[in-house]
Amino acid sequence: MTTSRTPDQLDVDQPHPEHDRGLEFDLNTLMSRRTLGLFFGASGAVAALAACTPAGNTGSTSSATSTATASFSAASSGSATSSAAPTLTRAIAECGVEIPQETAGPYPGDGSNGPNVLEASGVVRRDITSSFGTASAKAEGVPLTFTLTLLDNANGCTPLAGAAVYAWHCDRDGKYSMYDSSLKSENYLRGVQQADANGQVTFTSIFPGAYSGRWPHIHFEVFQSMNNATAAGQVLAVSQIALPQAACDTVYATPGYERSITNMTRTTLKSDNVFGDDGGIYQLATMTGSAAAGYTAGLNVTI
């Protein structure tokens, strides 16, 4: 599945009211969001996951179903699970439902809506905490390491080794580098990684804040190859990671995240304009850790 990025598909992902794009923009957003999540209930999704287990898997169907059921139960509750970074075995067992396609938001930095960080030297990196190139600012906040496991649904849920992921998110104040008036010369919390043999990419960052109208999240785009990513080429998938409420509540009680406390009381996964159609069940990360030691998150991304 491929996705073309156009400015009129950007979501209402904005911390500042002056970026309101009007009725036509909102309608385009609603029409472009979610082509899959609307059709699968949790029970149907579990069946689909079990059916998609590759032929070489020696586990039983009931085992795969149990694994998927446990995963969806944790996702529905919004709580962290005991294993954050997904193993390849677990990812394959849960494979079957493609990641919901989302818009890139008004602050993608991929050339589709203003500045393009993908063609900048230095964007390929694991640690996205600091700006690079001629910029020097560093994003402060609770440490967060997140891993995406990419799987090819059309080829038996095999790992998408060699694919590339561009990830970006707001800082603890809910602001995006390259777009906010105070951060136009900065490019922190943006980076590209190439998937390893297991189809996995890992980024080191900080826990993003919550801003008005949105549930805490991380944006990402998946490209066929690193060459496509750094040339802002055709995209295989555009989606978002939803962060579990338990971790958000803990982090936002720490110094520096004061703005997020009020915003969290105004939005739920069900009311969020991106995750609301299914409560983020296919995009809710598993997470372990603490505010003191930092968090580790993981998400399986089937394409």
Task: Explain the overall architecture.
The protein is an alpha+beta fold. The protein has a single domain, classed as Sandwich (Protocatechuate 3,4-Dioxygenase, subunit A). It contains 7 helices and 9 strands. Strands 1, 2, 5, 8 and 9 form a 5-stranded mixed β-sheet that branches. A hairpin with a 3-residue loop joins strand 8 and strand 9. Helix 2 packs antiparallel against helix 3 (61-77). Mean pLDDT is 77; it is low at 1-83. Pfam families: Dioxygenase_C. Residues 1-21 are annotated as: Disordered. Residues 138-212 form the Intradiol ring-cleavage dioxygenases domain. InterPro entries: Intradiol_dOase_C, Intradiol_dOase_core. This is 3,4-dioxygenase subunit beta.
Assembly context of the chains: single chain
Major sheet characteristics: 5 strands, mixed
**Low-pLDDT sequence parts:** 1-83
What's the structural domain tally?
1
Strand-and-helix sequence, N→C? HHHHEEEEEEHEHHEE
- The CATH C-level name is Mainly Beta
List the helices and strands and how they pair.
Layout: H1 22-32, H2 42-51, H3 61-77, H4 88-93, E1 143-152, E2 158-159, E3 164-168, E4 190-194, E5 200-206, E6 217-223, H5 226-230, E7 235-242, H6 245-251, H7 258-266, E8 286-290, E9 294-302
Parallel strand pairs: 1-9
Antiparallel strand pairs: 1-2, 1-5, 3-4, 3-6, 6-7, 8-9
Helix pairs in contact: 2-3
